[in-house]
Design brief:
transmembrane helix, 5 helices, 2 domains, metalloendopeptidase activity, M23ase_b-sheet_dom, 23% strand, membrane, two-stranded antiparallel ribbon, globular, 12-stranded mixed beta sheet, Cell_wall_metabolism_enzyme
Length: 276
């Protein structure tokens, strides 16, 4: 019950902000009510964040790389933990951008263009694969794929947008997403998927290497990329993040077990052929 109430921290925070914005009587009852609600919403969010801090010393779960081809690791647990934040079970989450050798990714520009359409990025439309056998337990794919945020004004907007999205439900932050219950008893989460690209539905049984969806640019995303994480449960607002380990090959051809550090370009050593 208390956890369900804490999950509404965004609504409490938003009501508090509205109270302050519409207040026209100075330091009156409405203003004080708004401040109290803002503090209460922040306290609820902080407590939920603390509850999602995972226990130490967990053994990484071995899974397959959920993409094929050459990708770059960003914001991953190979460099720091938490890689994102404990919120939404993102302690060990990782972001992946696609970089085929023959295709260039649009560069960051300080002022112009403010953003680019997602189809200019090699990651957009790339296959997202099952990292293991399991059952699909949650999906959503109705959110649009927006322009990239690859300029200084775009990054500033991204931070403001990200804060507002974090006050809402998981779909507001992750965009189009899928949660897969793996046979190991853990849950794999995939975020920022392309709208309308889901190849599976809730309740479907999938096998390792099967195509689940396509990489997109929905939700809190600066450019088309895949957000991947393992969780202890299907609800990212209450689950703990879990560490994972991949088998991958870097650009020098050396194979590794673990998670690539930020900035590392890598490929799966034997990419699974995606099933239709």
């Amino acid at each position: 019950m208390l956890t369900s109430l804490r999950k509404r921290h965004g609504l409490v925070f938003a009501i508090g902000a509205v109270c302050i914005l519409v207040n026209r009587q100075g330091l009156g009852p409405l203003w004080f009510a708004g401040v109290i609600l803002l503090m209460l919403g922040g306290l609820m969010r902080w407590h939920l964040w603390c509850k999602q801090r995972p226990p130490q010393g967990q053994t990484p779960v071995p899974v397959e790389v959920p993409v094929t081809g050459r990708w770059q690791a960003l914001n991953g647990p190979g460099t720091k933990v938490p890689s994102h934040t404990h919120s939404h079970a993102q302690t060990y989450a990782i972001d992946l951008t696609h970089h085929p050798s023959a295709e260039a990714t649009p560069p960051f520009r300080p002022l112009w263009p403010l953003g680019r359409r997602p189809h200019h990025y090699p990651a957009f439309g790339s296959s997202v694969l099952a990292p293991g056998d399991g059952v699909v337990v949650a999906t959503t794919d109705r959110q649009r794929d927006h322009f990239s945020r690859t300029s200084l004004p775009g990054i500033a907007y991204l931070y403001l947008e990200g804060f507002i999205r974090s006050l809402g439900r998981p779909r507001h932050l992750w965009g189009n997403y899928l949660v897969l219950e793996l046979d190991q008893g853990v849950y794999a989460g995939f975020g920022h998927l392309r709208r309308g690209s889901l190849r599976v539905a809730e309740g479907d049984r999938v096998t390792v290497g099967q195509q689940l969806a396509e990489c997109g640019n929905s939700g809190n995303s600066s450019e088309p990329h895949l957000h991947f994480q393992l969780m202890s449960g299907p609800d990212s607002e209450t689950a703990h993040g879990l560490p994972f380990a991949w088998r991958y090959r870097d650009d020098d051809g050396t194979e590794h077990d673990g998670v690539p550090k930020d900035g590392t370009y890598f490929t799966p050593p034997q990419p699974s052929s995606p099933s239709q």
